[in-house]
Known about the structure:
The protein is α/β, with parallel strands linked by helices. Helices cover 33% and strands 11% of the residues. The longest helix is centred in the first third of the chain and has 15 residues.
Amino acid sequence: MTDSADAILSRARQRGAELGLPYFGAISPVDAHALLSAAPGAQLVDVRTRAEWDYVGRVPQGTLIQWNLYPDGARNPRFMEDLKRVARDPSSPVLFLCRSGHRSDAAARAAAAAGYEKALNILEGFEGDKDTEGHRGKLGGWRKNGLPWIQG
């Protein structure tokens, strides 16, 4: 049986409170995938660079809004403007995804400060943390959990 959107959001909210986050909550990749189906209006915003999206892979129902620009890494000055165009309802869940959960944390903080009530950081990101050999994709993340993704 699949959890309801309320149950998933409750877990994310509790985790966010435990971590002392200034935004709604932190969500596992598996719960994020389930929430996208269970909560009408929920949106996944991928904050990686266009290069990561194109060459590493992406979540099919995600929308790309770069937090940092490629190749110089400068912060995207239009991030909030782009977010407001894509996520028009600030009361609907907005799930932020990056490589490992750090840029998405920053994006969730910015979204919450701008009035998004259910800003969520997807823990572990798309690829997860590096293993002892310096490789990603083995310790966690969207792909490691076998969730839908495409490449190229």
